[in-house]
């Protein structure tokens, strides 16, 4: 499990540069000699900007008229010029006063939108789609090579209760809501690309409207299911030494061995902690999106990461800590989608092994009753514990 | 299978309840972004 957590943390950190790249402008850039232009823009600045190379633009962002005292009678000389005002608006340094209900309106210009859009339509859509398709393809190949994992022993006809009613209810509450959220999330993200060109914009718009309604409201069932499942099963998912045995035998998925396990084996623990941690992260970013501009997450998170020196571990400049409310929403959307793609890929594998991939597995969540032969093969220690409680002799 | 169907039914009830509750509590975008000088209705 330690390895799993290390890998998860590494993946988490690897994702951060994507966010920083989406809107960072304050990374270090080589100093440019601007004495020839009296501190104003140089040809080198223009060329670097055209080549989309990071540049130190403090000569513009800081040049907003300063604190000069306005002359009497509103005379224009000696105070902020139009250029100063526009630069102040451009860099969000102007003292903007508004009469709308939300202070977000004070940001008149912010340049994160295009970068967010390009990332959303580009790498996010591209790699996210391939991740899901690749996972499904890998499972099909695995099925063709390995086939269904059968129960080696003869069925006994005697069953044990694997999951109680409330456990199964909580699982299906979480599972049903996750599938709905996944489908509606994919429709929202990919509809313009894959549906509008073929079925028309009207169909896509209708699907989007329905998807938004379902996604926003079903999210509460998902969060409730996540909390229920956490408290029901966390005790059984604490890592222990048996997990190392399970890993050493590849969980019986590859080969013919069936490592001993308690109620949950190491593979199931990976699924559990993935659902809890990734699902929790999706829930938090989802809440930030459900209540726009009310729950900003990233400036504070980046601040903590900078304090820990995390960006430096990867040779990166500190992450931006001054984010406009719009930047916060853009980052929340990207993070929400990236983590959701990873969790969807994991859950596709979970659905596979819980249905066609393993004989008898679905019964555990279907009726809650599993044959003793199945329980002995996959959860032998748990079966012995259940039998000991009932006073029955342990399985051979 | 009863647990599965109950879970799905609860999902629908919670979803409808969330929609109704949040609308009643004034959390719709229309209400959040309306003010003395801005009306979105």
From TrEMBL, chain A:
GO terms for cellular component: formate dehydrogenase complex; plasma membrane. SUPFAM superfamilies: Transmembrane di-heme cytochromes. One of its GO terms (biological process) is respiratory electron transport chain. Residues 58-81 are annotated as: Disordered. Residues 162-367 form the Cytochrome b561 bacterial/Ni-hydrogenase domain. The keyword DNA-binding does not apply. Pfam families: Ni_hydr_CYTB. Its cofactor is heme. GO terms for molecular function: electron transfer activity; formate dehydrogenase (NAD+) activity; formate dehydrogenase (quinone) activity; metal ion binding. Keywords: Cell membrane, Electron transport, Heme, Iron, Membrane, Metal-binding, Signal, Transmembrane, Transmembrane helix, Transport. The chain crosses the membrane at residues 127-145, 172-194, 214-235, 270-291, 334-353. It is a multi-pass membrane protein. The keyword Endoplasmic reticulum does not apply. InterPro entries: Cyt_b561_bac/Ni-Hgenase, Di-haem_cyt_TM, FDH_cytochrome_b556_subunit, Formate_DH_gsu. Residues 1-22 form the signal peptide. Gene3D superfamilies: Transmembrane di-heme cytochromes, Chain C (1.20.950.20). It is found in: Cell membrane. Belongs to the formate dehydrogenase gamma subunit family. This is Formate dehydrogenase, cytochrome b556(Fdo) subunit. The gene is fdoI.
TrEMBL record, chain B:
This is Uncharacterized protein. It comes from Pseudoprimorskyibacter insulae. The lineage of its organism: Bacteria, Pseudomonadati, Pseudomonadota, Alphaproteobacteria, Rhodobacterales.
């Amino acid at each position: 499990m330690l390895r799993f957590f290390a890998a998860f943390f590494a993946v988490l950190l690897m994702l951060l540069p994507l966010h920083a790249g989406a809107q960072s402008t304050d990374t270090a850039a080589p100093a440019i000699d601007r004495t020839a232009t009296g501190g104003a823009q140089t040809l080198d600045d223009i060329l670097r900007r055209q080549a989309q190379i990071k540049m130190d633009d403090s000569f513009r962002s800081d040049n907003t008229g300063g604190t000069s005292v306005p002359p009497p009678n509103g005379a224009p000389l000696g105070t902020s010029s139009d250029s100063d005002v526009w630069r102040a608006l451009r860099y969000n340094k102007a003292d903007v006063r508004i009469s709308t209900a939300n202070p977000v309106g004070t940001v008149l210009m912010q340049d994160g939108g295009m970068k967010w859009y390009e990332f959303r339509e580009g790498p996010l859509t591209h790699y996210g789609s391939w991740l899901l398709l690749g996972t499904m393809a890998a499972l099909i190949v695995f099925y063709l090579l390995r086939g269904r994992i059968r129960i080696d022993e003869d069925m006994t006809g005697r069953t044990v209760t694997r999951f109680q009613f409330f456990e199964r209810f909580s699982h299906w509450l979480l599972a049903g809501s996750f599938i709905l959220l996944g489908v509606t999330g994919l429709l929202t993200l990919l509809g313009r690309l894959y549906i509008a060109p073929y079925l028309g914009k009207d169909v896509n718009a209708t699907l989007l409207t329905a998807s938004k309604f379902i996604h926003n409201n079903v999210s509460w069932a998902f969060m409730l299911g996540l909390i229920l499942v956490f408290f029901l099963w966390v005790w059984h998912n604490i890592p222990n030494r048996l997990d190392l045995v399970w890993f050493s035998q590849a969980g019986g998925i590859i080969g013919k061995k069936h490592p001993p396990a308690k109620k949950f084996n190491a593979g199931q623990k990976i699924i559990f902690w993935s659902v809890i941690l990734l699902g929790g992260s999706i829930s938090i970013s989802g809440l930030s999106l459900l209540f726009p501009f009310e729950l900003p997450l990233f400036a504070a998170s980046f601040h903590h990461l900078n304090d820990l020196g995390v960006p430096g571990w990867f040779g990166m400049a500190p992450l931006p800590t001054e984010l406009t409310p719009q930047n916060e929403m853009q980052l929340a959307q990207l993070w929400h989608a990236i983590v959701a793609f990873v969790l969807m890929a994991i859950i596709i594998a979970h659905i596979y092994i819980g249905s066609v991939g393993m004989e008898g597995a679905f019964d555990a969540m279907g009726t809650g009753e599993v044959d003793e032969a199945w329980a002995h093969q996959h959860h032998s220690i748990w079966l012995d514990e259940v039998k000991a409680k009932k006073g029955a002799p342990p399985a051979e | 299978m009863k647990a599965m169907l109950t879970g799905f039914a609860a999902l629908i009830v919670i979803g409808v309840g969330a929609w109704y509750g949040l609308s009643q509590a004034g959390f719709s975008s229309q209400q959040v972004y309306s003010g003395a000088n801005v009306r979105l209705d």
